[in-house]
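Before a colleague's protein record goes any further, I have to sign it off. I want your independent view on whether this chain really folds as the tokens say. The record follows directly below this note.
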Amino acid sequence: MNPQFGTVVIVGVGLLGGSLGLALKQRGLANLVRGVGRRKEVLDTALALKAIDEGTLDLGGAMKGADLVVLCTPAAQVPSQLDVVRTRIAPHVVVTDVASTKAEICARVRTNWSEPYRFVGSHPMAGSEKYGPEHATATLYEGCITLVEPRNNHADDAYEKVVSLWAAVGARVVEIPADLHDGIVAKTSHIPHIIAALVAEQAANAGDVKHLVGKGFRDVTRIAEGRAEIWRDICLTNRNAIAKGLREFGAQLNAVREMIEHGEADDLDRFFQAAQAARRKVLDE
């Protein structure tokens, strides 16, 4: 039986792209995995780790013979890459992405691509603060939720292939509209990352505190180690939702500050109890 995805082109072979390549290859899901990158040394690392079968710096040329294209680059790069891919792929090719913002990307497709759409927006909720193919693992997507835009004038076979891709590498697919997606992940992922960055910066500005840092600081700030380019692009491609959430967070932070300044013990107690309940609700514990 032939592998179900034929020739897969992965654009961006870092943690997410490299892990997808490893998962496809180790599960026998592709005839060939071709990686596309901006730097030869990154492609060489992915080749050495067997995350890809071949690599190229030429995005347009990489589309020759492709059956499935997965864009695994920072979110701000995806719209322009889609413009190149659209003009170079054969009619049967299916395209998806892994970007953690969706509205701008999906809107670009609806503006520039013809119906029925052969691009389906995806966002696997996988990853870590580490980046680069050297940290890729074939099990990264196992058990993770992958958010996929709902059917909306998509080609049936293209939509089904994207859903089957994520299921084949171990993920659970959940459909969610792009605008709703961006509003929710702003609060569950993007704003927490910004807050972690600010906490890390505030501690660093306090001087040499390395002997006074406990587990709580490490837990809260771990994600601040994430690749700056990725988080810059997330902020730029989800500006409205992140800005709205930060305004709401700022108001809440001011309210807590006032409780502390005024010594309002009962209000503080209620605040921390509510926070405990909120976390359990979000995690369904």
